[in-house]
Amino acid sequence: MSMKTRRTFHRAGLMLLAATMLAGCTVGPRYQPDRMKLPPGFAEDEHAATPAEIARTNAELKDWWHRFGDAELDRLVDRAIAGNYDLQIAGQRILAERALRDVQASAWYPQVDANTTDGDSRYSINVDNWPLRPGNPANRPGASYLSYGVSASWQIDVFGRIRRAVEASEHAVEENVEERRAVLMTMLSSLVSDYMVLRDTQLRLEISNRNIGVAQEAYDLTRRLYLEGVGNTLQIAQAKAELDAQQAAREPLRTHIAQITHAIDVLMGQVPGTTEAELKVARPLPQVPEFPATVPSIVLGNRPDIRRAERAYAEATARIGVAVAQMYPNFAIPLNFNPNASAMYQVFEAGALSWQFFMLASLPLMHGGKLTGQIRAAQAAAEASRLTYRQTVLGAFREVEDAMAAWHDDVEHTELLHRAAEDSRLASDRARKLYAAGLVGFLEVLTTERTALAAENAEAVARLERLQDAIDLYTAMGAGWQGVGVTASALPVSLEKQNVLARAFQD
Question: What CATH code is carried by the domain that includes residue 208?
Answer without folding.
Answer: 1.20.1600.10
